[in-house]
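Anyone up for a design puzzle?
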């Protein structure tokens, strides 16, 4: 039994009607519920009824819940792009194997240079990112890379191709703390339309990855959908089911959620269901109300102004000064970026903006103990 089996019980397109049919009393019930929320509550929180009549209340409640649980601290992390080599054919991504450009896999020396540059920027919470290429950026590569990066990282995260449970367990021994694997879209038919080739075309293999991570005892698992790719009502409700499932089956695993919105990349794929700024604000508040303990992360895909607006609502981790090109910290303009950075402020500028709003940027030892529920932080 995995989340694939669980999700197979649902007709996902029915989530559109579920969200659209939520009434004022459904929203009020979701806002007043104590303890675990249901997917019906979540549908109410992301509904148009909630956006038109309850957004202010939702934002205030999300702010209070976040401060009560996480205080004023924001974890600062930085992505390290190891490779832009990818065997997959995701129609919305600049790294797709369908696009022709110079491919790079960083050597250990280049990685060390990147880590040094990232440490100089103040970062110890490092996120390793790569395209998916088993042969040149697979387990043998990761076995060599992690010991190098670990010298510079007090918290080490990965966002690479899905692996086997035993492989995650092995990387955990090498210092891996957290892994993010975003489903992009939970809708199986649409998933097939936008993942044309490579291992990522295997919907089930990807969907079951958080199960394998939980079984391997990885401390934190990041899940999410690429907003705008398919209908956001469907993907967000399926993601809520995923969170409920993970909480139920892997209670020791922390969960983080990201809100990537589809942005322009090489290949020119346009969002089919765009998510507006007001909608994303509502979505962030909805997640916080749905589950007070979620780690909520926002990347530099979003603009400076909008990130500053979202920050107090529920965000617990963010990046600043990011490069999405392999080698981009030590050597600017090193290779093609995966997507366009929208908040191009320096780290100092972001930290100053945070401090002026009363937040503290945490760069060192972004230990999950900091954010653990009291019952676990022993
Ligand atoms: S989204 Fe990831 S897997 Fe898909 S083409 Fe881009 S880098 Fe490769």
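Challenge accepted. My sequence:
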């Amino acid at each position: 039994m995995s989340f694939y089996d669980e999700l197979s019980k649902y007709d996902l397109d029915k989530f559109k009607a579920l969200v659209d049919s939520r009434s004022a009393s459904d929203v009020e019930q979701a806002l007043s519920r104590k303890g675990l929320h249901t997917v019906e509550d979540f549908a109410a929180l992301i509904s148009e009824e909630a956006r038109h009549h309850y957004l202010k209340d939702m934002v205030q409640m999300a702010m209070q819940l976040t401060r009560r649980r996480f205080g004023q601290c924001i974890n600062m992390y930085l992505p390290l792009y190891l490779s832009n080599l990818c065997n997959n054919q995701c129609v919305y991504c600049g790294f797709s194997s369908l696009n022709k450009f110079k491919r790079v896999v960083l050597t250990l020396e280049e990685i060390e240079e990147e880590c040094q540059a990232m440490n100089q920027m103040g970062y110890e919470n490092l996120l390793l990112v790569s395209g998916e290429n088993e042969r040149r950026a697979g387990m043998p590569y990761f076995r060599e890379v992690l010991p190098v990066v670990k010298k510079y990282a007090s918290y080490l995260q990965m966002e690479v191709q899905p692996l086997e449970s035993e492989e995650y367990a092995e990387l955990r021994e090498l210092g891996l703390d957290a892994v993010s694997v975003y489903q992009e879209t939970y809708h199986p038919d649409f998933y097939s339309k936008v993942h044309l080739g490579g291992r990522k075309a295997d919907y089930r293999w990807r969907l079951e990855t958080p199960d394998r991570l939980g079984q391997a005892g990885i401390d934190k698992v990041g899940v999410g959908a690429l907003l705008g790719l398919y209908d956001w009502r469907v993907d967000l409700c399926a993601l809520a089911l995923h969170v409920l499932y993970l909480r139920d089956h892997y209670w020791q695993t922390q969960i983080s959620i990201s809100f990537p919105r589809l942005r322009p990349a090489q290949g020119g794929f346009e969002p089919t269901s765009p998510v507006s700024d007001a909608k994303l604000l509502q979505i962030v508040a909805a997640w916080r109300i749905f589950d007070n303990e979620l780690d909520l992360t926002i990347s530099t895909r979003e603009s400076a102004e909008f990130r500053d607006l979202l920050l107090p609502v529920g965000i617990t981790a963010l990046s600043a000064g990011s490069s999405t090109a392999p080698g981009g910290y030590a050597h600017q303009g090193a290779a093609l970026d995966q997507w366009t950075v929208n908040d191009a402020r320096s780290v100092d500028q972001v930290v100053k903006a945070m401090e002026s709003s009363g937040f503290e940027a945490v760069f060192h030892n972004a230990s999950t103990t900091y954010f653990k529920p009291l019952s676990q932080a022993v």
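A detail worth pointing out: The first helix runs from residue 3 to 7.
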